[in-house]
Every structure is written in C-alpha cells, then in structure tokens.
Amino acid sequence: MGLGRYLLRKFLWYLGALLVALLLNFFLPRLIPGNPVDALVGRLSQGGAGSDQLQAMHTQYVKEFGLDKPMWQQFFIYLGNLAKGDLGTSFMQYPASVNKLVGDALPFSVALQLPAILFGWLIGNLLGAIAAFKGGWFDKGAFVGSLFLSSMPYYCLAILLLFGLAVWYPMFPQGRAYSLGLTPEFSFTFLNDAISYWWLPFLSLVLIFIGGQAVGMRSMAIYELGSDYVNYGRGLGMKDSQMVRYIFRNAMLPQITGLALSIGGLVGGALITELVFNYPGMGSLLFGAISSNDYPVIQAITLIITVTVLMANFAVEVLYGFIDPRIKATQGGDKS
Amino acid sequence: MSRLLEATNLNAAYLTPEGREVKAVDDVSLYIDEGEILGCAGESGCGKSTLGNVLALTARPPLYPISGRITIDGQTISLDRENKVPRTWRGEVVSMLPQGALNSLSPTARIRNLVGDVMKAHDAKMGKDEALDRARDRMKELGLPPRALDAYPHELSGGMKQRVITVISTLLNPKLLIADEPTSALDVSSQRALVEMLREMLNQGIMKGVIFVTHDLPLLKSISDRIAVMYAGQIVEVASAETIADNARHPYSTALLNAVLAPEPDTLVKRVEGIRGAPPSLAKPPSGCRFHPRCGLVMDICSAKQPAPVGTDLEFACCHWTAQHPDQVIRVEDVLARNDEVEE
Hints:
heterodimer, A: 336 residues, mainly alpha, MetI-like fold, 14 helices, B: 344 residues, Rossmann fold, 8-stranded mixed sheet, globular
C-alpha cells in the first residue's frame, strides 16, 4: 500500500466522520426542549405588543426560519445553504447573518488563543526540557510550579488575575475586548486599545498552557534521558550537545500531537475564559446561542470546530509520517 | 604478548536514596593481555555489569566509581567520585557493546546519522561522507551489507542490529571492548555469527582485547581465553576457560559451572543440583570469604579472614581451602554438601 492510498483511505474516513458530525450538529440542538421562536416573541411581548400581533409575528418567524417544514427538509435546506457558504441567519440577533456573527467573533478568539498556544507550547517545552536536564532545585521549582499551574482550573486563574491585576493593582482594564465607543477595525488606535484588554485573558491561558506542556515535556525528557541509547551514546564518547538532539527529537513526538490538536480546537474559543473576561469571541457567542436555542449559530460553530479538529488530526497523521520513521513504515506498508 | 589492561583496586558503589553506599565492585583487580577475550561470569547481582560499566567509564548516578587505576595500552586514568573522564577516552580507548535488543539506537535516527555523529565527536574535522565511507568499508570487511547504514533501527533484524551496533562500537578502533550481554537476546545462529565476528575483529586488530560479560556459561566457555568468576562484587577466580571448566580452584566456580548441562546421553535423567540460596546483599556482605555461608568446604578461617589471591595476575583463586589443599580437585558434591542447611 503506497502513501497515496494510505492518505486517500484516511481522507475518506475523515469525510465519513464529518458527515456524521454534520447530522449530529444539526439534530442535537433541535432536540433541546424549548422553541426559539417562543423565546424571541416572548421578549418582544415585553415591548407591549398585542396578542394578535404576537400571534402573527410568531407565525411569520416560524415561516421565515423554515421551522414549519419537516426536520429532514430543513436539514437538506441547511446542506444546500452550506454548499453556498451560507451559514444561515441568527434567530436571536435577527436579521444578522451567522457568517457575520462568526466573522466578528473569530478574530478575537484566534488573536487570544493562537499566541497563547504557540508561546505556551514553546516556553513550556523549553522549560520542561531544561528542568529535566538540569535536575536539582531548578527542576523541583519548575516541576512544582508547572504542576500547580496545569492542575488549576482556567477560571480560577482568570479570576485571580482579574482581581490581582485589574482590581487590586489596576494595570489592565477589567473585562471586554476594547473600550466602549470604539469599533473593531484595523487602525492603530483600536489595536493599541485592544491589546491592553488582551493581556489578562492571554496570561490566564498561556500560564496554564505552559504548565501543562512543561509537565509533559519534563517527564518525556527524563524518560529519554534514562534510555539505553543515551547511555550507549555516552559510552561512545558523544558530546552532550549531540545527545540532546537525539533526546529532543524523541521527546518531541507526543508534544507535536498536542500542539496540532490545540490549534485545531482553538476556533471553538476559550469558553470560560471568554465568559470571565466578557470577551466577544467564539466561546461567548456559542454560550449565548446555546442558552437561547439559536440553532443556526450553534450549528455553525460546532461545524467549524468539527472541521478544524478533523483537519488538525489529519495534519498530525500526515506530519507524523515525516517525523517518526516507524510510522512511515506502517503507512507505506513496509516492514514494521 | 604485552599487557593491554591493568585495572587495579577498583571500587565502585551505588548510592541508595537514603544516602547509603552499596559497594558493587569491591577492590577488584583485573589484567588482560593483548589479543585476549576475557569472559566474566557470575550469578545475577554479582557486579558483572557494574564492573563492565566502571571499566567502560560509563558509570552514572546512582553508580559512582570510588577509587582505582585503569591503564589501557600505556594510558592511565585514576578513578574518583568526581568521575571526570576525558570524553574521548570513551569510544577510542575503551568502548562498550550493549545488548542490541535494548533500545541502544535512537528510533528516529538512521544508522548513518549515528555513525556520522560518533565520528564527529572524536574528530571535528571529519566530514559526514568520510565517516560514512569508513563505516561502509568496515561493514564490507566484516561481510555485512553496507545498505544497513541507511536503515532505521526498526528496519533491521535483531541479529543484524546487534552486528551493526558492534561495528559502531568499534568504529574508532578502541583498544578494549566491553561487551555486556551482547548475545542474550539473539537466537543461537545469530549468537554464533556475532561471536565469530568478534573473533575476526580481534584477529584483524580492530580492537586489542575484549571483556565479555554474560550469563550464558556454555557460550562463555567457547568464546573466552580466560574466565573471571565474580561473586558478591569480587573476583573469586580467574583462569583459562579449560581450567575453570574442568579443574576450577574456587568452590563457587565449580558449583557455577556444574549448573551447565552438556548434551550427553544421561542428560535427560540427570538432576542438576544448583547452589542453594542467593548471593548476599551487597549492602551487608558476610565476613571473611563472602561465599562461606553457602560453601560445603567451609572451615573456621573462612568466616574470619578474607582469603588472599593465590596464583599469578592472570590466573588466581581466592579460597582458603584451595590454598591449604593445592593439589586436590574440588568435588561438586562437597561444595553442595551444605545445600540442606542453607535456606532457600
């Protein structure tokens, strides 16, 4: 079996997984008890509209959203729109299109998480590797610190940071992503303003990520340090710097999977972090949508998450073939 | 023949987590002449591999060398706890040959990368191609396929991996090769191929001497010129392979070699009696001769005084009984006579 056929087979598998996920994404939100139109109209009724008007509005909305049609028909309409790249219209923020809502929220989530994941991964792995090599007090300190950070819930650290650096010693603003009165745009004023809001949620994510990566890398590196090939390399008079390269390459393998999967999952937003900091990313959007049965928004976000996670997994499988010869052999069907 | 290795008064200990020292190599002196293969035998936990590590200069925590001098081919090094050994000694003067079934090769590096790195570590000017050419020539000389150099470790069979490791271990023409159980994971034909290769390399002068540590006594008898028998961190007897097999001068050697089955007609019905008990804990070795609690020839002096070696540097035994009975043969039945008293 050649590499091409291997990739094709994997690709078909992932396509199948995507189809199943599409079905679940569509039907699961609709199984949540409660009707979104009831909620929407109920909100309007507080405005003091009469009951006939409300009734008419209710019918109008149900028709508009296509909720009067059978579920399977709705599904195919959804698929048709999806093929055109149209994610639908939000119920709760009618008539805003889901494309626009996602387009507004996604940059915030990515800007928050991508640097957190990349920096956290890099620093965490370096810290873990150095701790493993150095041993002694540096190792003890780094290990205990990392373990503490990695086992701390996100929201705890978020709230502590918020209290410490925004309330008690107000270095950073509390919550939100930019000052009231500004609109998101690519201008110096806006970016300069937004970055001061960005620090706290970024810190709360990156610290925890550093901790998790460092703990993992440290134990991998310690394991590799004690392995036979290190002993043999020393016995052959190899330099430490040469041994480090061997150790690093082997210890990195599981860490690369972790990185790819984190990047895959980042579009889902850091739900709790975004809620704590009132940050307008994908997490906040999803949370709002779930609590108001906003099917199109839920669907859209879960779909995006599904696609990116699947893509990241696929990328890892392909990438692994290039960095781990043992896996390449299995992929290519050689002797393993 | 000139002397290749003089290792005198070697001491090495493991440091336990509680901070105690457990001496696993206790005042060991060892000599090898050029062109010799010295076998090293003993039960598990007798310090064979530890001695190998100390001689190969690869001791690492929790194992610490304490004292001793090693002279190889005229170059001398003193051991101490600091364990500061010139890096280039390893691989050039003394080299180790580990068991290949262990992960002695990094799974993500091709053999040729390791070859290049090993050469470069000893000669910074050497280019990758030059290093590879040398390895390729060496492979050809020994009748191995040079394309094995392009493989990853998992692509080689166990026997091939072991032979490739042997080539890498001897790339720099080390004076002395310490082979620690290199055959233990191999089938019999691969074992034979490896042993023949080692002999061939010795004849070609790639290395000048080999110390061969193994549990496999029949193999040891066939490969070794002399055999050193270790018990509880000490060498109790060194003698030529034939002497050890037929007329050992230490009761432990006699009993140990008796545990080997020779394929003879009565083998099927023969009951092999081993030495009861286990080697003593090295944390608290017995007084006097360390074998005395298990020995059938034990005398009063055995528990009181450590026996001095009797013989020459190259052939000696440390036993009070043989010192007093220089012309008598040790009988296995006598050595095992106390088996009933010794607790399992």
